[in-house]
Amino acid sequence: MNRREHGGEYIEFSYDGRSVRLPIVTGTEGDKAIDIRDLRKQSGLITLDPGLVNTGSCRSGITYIDGERGILRYRGYPIEDLVENCEFVEVAYLLVHGALPKADEREHFSDLLNRHSMIHEDMRNFFRNYPEHAHPMAVLSAMVISLSTFYPELESSSDEEMDITVTRLLSKLRTIAAFSYKKSVGEPFVYPSHRLRYCENFLNMMFSSPVVDYQIDPKVVRALDQLLILHADHGQNCSTSTVRLVGSSGANLYASVAAGICALWGHLHGGANQGVVEMFERIIRDGGNVDKVIELAKRKDSGFRLMGFGHRVYKTYDPRARLAKKVCHDLLEHLGKSDAMLDIAMRLEEKALKDDYFIERGLYPNVDFYTGIIFQAIGIPTNMFTVMFAIGRLPGWIAQWLEHRADREQKIGRPRQLYVGPHEHHFGGGGHRPSERASAK
Ligand code: SDX
Q1: How far is CA 328 from CA 92, 234, 331, 390, in A?
Q2: Does residue 110 sit in the same domain as residue 7?
Q3: Is the minimum distance from the CB of 263 to ligand 1 under 6 angstroms?
Q4: Same domain, 401 and 275
Q5: Does residue 61 sit in the same domain as residue 127?
Q6: Which of 65, 124, 260, 350 has its CA 20 to 30 A from that of 315?
Q7: Ligand 1 pocket: which of 366, 388, 394 to mutate (most atoms <8 Å of CB)?
Q8: Is residue 34 part of a domain?
Q9: Closest residue by Cα to residue 182 from 384, 31, 363
C-alpha cells in the first residue's frame, strides 16, 4: 500500500509480523523509486534482481533516458540538439563540467587537450611487445592502466589536479587508440599535432604516414564528431556501472576507466558494433538473405541474436540509431559510396520491425546498428569499432565517476546475494580429508 504524509510518499507492507515503511523518491522528470536502504533493517529481507533490471544504483544529474518515448538528454539538452549544434569536445566539457563551455573556456579546454595529447616516450615501447593481431580493446585497457603509473599524483588528486587528470585522459586515449592501430598495420606512429582539432588529430594519427599526408575531409571529421557525441554517455549502462563500482572502492580514475573499457568490450554491450558489421558481412556472403537471419534470431536454441537490435532501456527506436542512420546516409552520399551493408541494414530493419517477435519484445535498432557502417566508411578497421565507442564514452565515464566520488549518499558498492549452496557439513570420519581417507584405506 502506498501513502502520502508530510508531502512525502511511502510504501508500507507487513512481513512476518514486522511492518515496513519505505519512502518513495521522485526524479526530475517524475520517475519514481522505492528507497530500500532500510528494507533489511525493517524486514530482514533483501531484494533479488539479476542484471539489476529494476534496480537504481544512484541519483544522477548527467543523463536522462526515457526508454518508452525514446528520449535521451545530456545535462538536459536533447541529443538531437547536441548532435546538430555542437562538437564532441564541447559535449565532453558539458558532461564533465555540467555546462557547455563559453568561448574562452572552449579555447582553454582545446589548448589543454592539445598540450596533453602526447604519451610518454617510454609508453611507445609497450606497443612493441603486443602481437600484431592483439585486439585493440585489450591494448586500450592495458595502456590506460599503464598511464596511471606515470602519474602517481592520481592517488591524491585535488580538484585542480583532477582537471588535468581528466583532460590528460580525454586527450591521450585518442593517441593510444591511433598508436595501437599503427602498430597493428606495421606503420610508424604519427604524433598528434597542435594545428589540428580533436577529431582531425585522431584521423591524422590514424591515416597519415611518412609517404602520404592524410587529406582531412571536413564532412568525414563532422561525421566522426557526431558519432562520438552519440556515444558520450548513457546513464548506468554496464561499463559505466563498472567505472562507478571500481571507483567506489577508492581506485583512481584511470584504473576505473581501464575496467570500464573491459566491460564495454563484451559483445552484448559496446562489442556489438563489431558484431553488427560481422553479421552484415555474413549476410552478404550468404547472398543477402535477411529472412534467414531474422528467423535464426527468433529461435531460442540458436544462441544467435540480431546484433544492434534490442536494448535494456529503449523499448522503442533508440534516438541515437535514428541520428546515426542519417549520418550514415549523408556520409555515404558525400563519399559517393553505395554501401551494400546499408542496404542490408535497411532491409533487416524493415523486416524485423514488421515481425511480431520483435514488436512484442520491443526490439528496435540500437546505437550499434548503423555506427559500424559509418566507421567502416571512414576507414576504421572492424576490430577498432568498440575502441571508437570507448573514445566517445570516455567523457561520460569520467563525469559519472566524478559524480559518484562527490555523492555523499554513496559508499563502496557491495551487493548482497541469496545463498543457494550446501548446508554446513564437515570432513568425513577420522578427521581425514576425503582424498586422504580414500588412500588411508
Ligand atoms: C549497448 O545499457 C545501455 O545503455 C547500453 C548502450 C550504451 O550506450 O551504453 O546502449 C550500448 O550496449 C547497446 C546494446 C548492444 N547490444 C546488442 O545489440 C546485442 C544484441 N542485443 C541483445 O543481446 C539485448 O537486446 C540486450 C543485451 C541489448 C538487452 O538485453 P536484455 O535487456 O537483458 O533483454 P533480454 O535478454 O532479457 O531479452 C528480452 C527478450 C528475450 O526473449 P524472451 O526470453 O522474452 O523470449 O528479447 C529477446 C530475448 O531473447 N531479445 C532478442 C534480442 N534482444 C533481446 N532476440 C533476438 N535478437 C536480439 N537482439
Answers
A1: 22, 21, 5, 20
A2: no
A3: no
A4: yes
A5: no
A6: 260
A7: 366
A8: yes
A9: 384
CA of 262 to the centre of ligand 1 (A): 19
Q: Do residues 87 and 201 lie in contact, with contact meaning Cβ atoms separated by under 8 Å?
A: no
Residue 363 in contact with ligand 1 by CB distance below 6 A: yes
pLDDT in tens, the chain (441 residues): 666 655 689 999 999 999 999 999 999 999 999 999 999 999 999 999 999 999 999 999 999 999 999 999 999 999 999 999 999 999 999 999 999 999 999 999 999 999 999 999 999 999 999 998 999 999 999 999 999 999 887 776 677 788 899 999 999 999 999 999 999 999 999 999 999 999 999 999 999 999 988 999 999 999 999 999 999 999 999 999 999 999 999 999 999 999 999 999 999 999 999 999 999 999 999 899 999 999 999 998 998 999 999 999 999 999 999 999 999 999 999 999 878 899 999 999 999 999 999 999 999 999 999 999 999 999 999 999 999 999 999 999 999 999 999 999 999 999 999 999 999 999 876 656 766 666 665
Distance 309 CA to ligand 1 centre (A): 7
To the nearest 10 degrees (0 to 180), the angle between helices 218-231 and 198-207 is: 110
What global pTM score does this model have?
Answer: 0.94
Residue for grid cell 550468404: 286
Ligand 1 geometric centre to CA of 265 (Å)? 15
Residue 95, ligand 1, Cβ within 6 A: no
Please state, in angstroms and rounded to a whole number, the distance separating the CA atoms of residues 441 and 437: 7
Q: How far apart are CA 409 and CA 61, in angstroms?
A: 14
- Let me know whether 219 and 367 are in one domain: yes
Q: What CATH number is given to the structural domain containing 36?
A: 2.20.28.60
Same domain, 42 and 150: no
432 assigned to some structural domain = no
Residue 307 is given by DSSP the state: T
Q: In terms of residue numbers, what domain contains 25? A: 2-66
Verify that 42 and 103 share a domain, yes or no.
no
Clarify whether residues 139 and 62 are in a common domain: no
